[in-house]
Each structure stands twice: as structure tokens, then as C-alpha cells.
Amino acid sequence: xxxxxxxxxxxxxxxxxxxxxxxxVRMGDxxxxxxxxxxxxxxxxxxxxxxxxxxxxxxxxxMLRLATDSDxxxxxxxxxxxxxxxxxxxxKIAAHGLEMKLVNVSxxxxxxxxxxxxxxxxxxxxxxxxxxxxxxxxxxxxxxxxGVRDEAKMVGGIGICGRPFCCSEFLxxxxxxxxxxxxxxxxxxNPTKIxxxxxxxxxxLKYEQHAYEDAAKRMPKAESFxxxxxxxxxxxxxxxxxxxxxxxxxxxAPNEPLxxxxxxxxxxxxxxKGSRDGIEVPAERPARYVEEPxxxxxxPVFTTPFYMDARLEEAPVREKIGAPxxxxxxxxxxxxxxxxxxxxxxxxxxxxxxxxxERQTAKGPKSGEEKKGGQQGGKPRPPxxxxxxxxxxxxxxxxxxxxxxxxxxRRRPxxxxxxxxxxxxxxxxxxx
Length: 432
What we know:
By secondary structure, the chain is α+β, with helices and mostly antiparallel strands. Among the domains are: 2-67, no CATH class; 76-146, GMP Synthetase, Chain A, domain 3, CATH 3.30.300; 159-210, no CATH class; 219-270, Roll (SH3 type barrels). Helix content is 25%, strand content 19%. The chain has twelve helices and 13 strands. Helix 1 packs across helix 2. The protein is extended and about 85 Å long.
């Protein structure tokens, strides 16, 4: 086992192992490593870890140091130099009349080498172009011709699936893809549908190829002669993902649709196209496929949210806000512009006059002044102006039961914040 760190260079998706030289490096740290082209600026993708010796390509290059602020400024200056070199090279290509397309420019960390990547249909004589570029940049110039796949990886973009290109996102190498993979997966052979932005077959055709090949080994081919639970017939189509086949039965009517069977419901008598001569159809038919019943899961217990409680839904508006309930458990409804019901609030209004009549008979009559400014004990309080001159008023005669009932039914306006006092005096509690 050898302790290494994994780093990735700018514009690449492949990880490389380097010797940390006993320095603890964390993921995301920027480091300077030694390569065959000289020191390079890289980013750590995995910190110190151990790998097998067989996974290391000897000799293992060392990590020089952790990147400093000066190294980061140097890398930023190199990026500016690359952009300037790209514009200058395009002008030089147009001046020389070369049929080539410049794709990318990469400068080494120490600035001693500049690499120009281009695409072309054929071979290009760029010797004069190299001399002109060397005289401008005073560095070693290298021109590399790349393919359309490498161009797509460097440039990047969005594929037809709506995601970034696999080659520029995570693939560390290009996978071999053939048209046979599209045939095995029953895809359309239209080049515009199975080709990527680079014009080559999509790399994702390789991802599930092994699964399709395994399913194709277990499934009959098209035009195979099979025995089904309903009799013999020929396979017309195969669905590798669902592992089902559509069979045209020999006993079917001319316009009868094809029947679909699971792979385990058919017995292959002849795989692929061919003649039926000499093939004996067995009398025993395969059993039908019965799906296993799914296990019944216990019903989950859901707690009722507070805002969906049945009591709150049936309660008045004030109860929903959070007003306390009455002692008898019944909700009280406040009527706008009227009096609140006494007692539990659930008694009808017709029963009030009789109750009030009994109370008036037992306690004695009350005058109008007593109702407005009465004191505790039931004694009337005369007005200020009449205390000195006028004699005390005689109590009024009690009203009839019908009049008292009408007085009780009369509603008084309620004022926000309690009853208002009349005559500048505070209101006393009503005696019962």
C-alpha cells in the first residue's frame, strides 16, 4: 500500500496519483505537482489515502507544494495569456489561409510552452504558422490536431438529454461505441437520433449494453417459433426491458391482435427465422405467469394537523383564533351589536323572560337609575345635581312581567373595551 493523493488538472476529468511527500492535503486544495512537461497547477479531488501498488504507474511523481497566493496569481495570468494567444492565432491562421479551426489554447504553469489545439479535415502544413507564433510569444509552440470528440469535450455543452456532455462532465476517456449497440437496444437507426453534438454515436449507448446483452441471451429472437399457454405461434416483437414478447398464434383469427406473454410463459422451439419442418410441437403447454401478490404494508398512522381538527372546523371564528372554551364544553358565539347569552349559551331565547321574572320577584324591582349607575348592595345612587335640593326619589313601582320581559329582550350596544360610564363616573358591576 502506498499513500497518494488524487488530483485533476484544469479541463480534464481524469484523476492522477501523486506522492504527497508527507504533507496532509484535503479535498479541494490547490497544489503544484511535477509532470513530464514541468510543474503544473492542479486541484486535489481526494486527500491522503492508500492504494494498492498494482494501481500505481511507476515512477510516482511527487507533489511539490501547496499552492500559494503567488501561484494562484500566476495561474490567473496564464489564463489571460491563453485568451490573448487564441485571438492572435486566429488572425495568423486567416493570414496564412490555412483550413483549420482553432479550438483551445493551453499554457504551461511556468509559461515556457503554449499548446494550440485545432481541428481539420485533413493534414495541414502549419510550419510557417509555428514560426510566426514563436516570434510573437517567445516560447515553445506546439500545435495538436484533435478529433471532433475531443473538441466537444473541451468546448462542452448541453446534450439532447438536457444534461452537460458526459465527456466534459465525468468521463475520463472515450468509450468504443458501434451501431450494433443501437440494434441490440432496439433503438432507431436514424443517425440524427442516436448521434451526439460531435456527430458521432452517443457515448451513453455503452452504459447499459451489458444489461441488454444479458437480456437478449435469455429472450427469444424475432420470428422465433415458440409454444405458449394458448398454443404455438411466431414471435413478432421482443421487449428486453419488460422481458415480454408479442406472439402471433397459429389459431388466431386474421384480424386478431397479437398476444403478449412473459418470457417464462413461452417455450422456444426454434430460435430465429427458419422452417418449421421437422419441429415437433409438444402437447404440454407452459404454465401461465402469475405475479406474486405484493405484501400488504401496515397503513401509516397520520396525525391530524391542528388546522384540520374537526372541532376547529365546526367552531366559530373566535374559537379558531384561540379563545378559551366555556366550562360546559360548548362554544360561545359572539353576536355583533348584541348581548352575549348568559349561562352556557345553549339555552333558547324564549326561556329568558320566565327566568328573569322569577329573579325580579325574588329580589325586588330595579329602577332605571339602578341599572345605569347602581352600586353594590342594590341601593340607588341619586344624581349630583339632585343631592342638595331635591329630596330622594321614591322607588318606582315594579313593572309588569310583560314589561320586564320586554326590557330584558331589549339589546344594548356593546362598546369595545367594556361598558362606558355615564356622567363621568365609573360603572359599577351589575348586581344580580
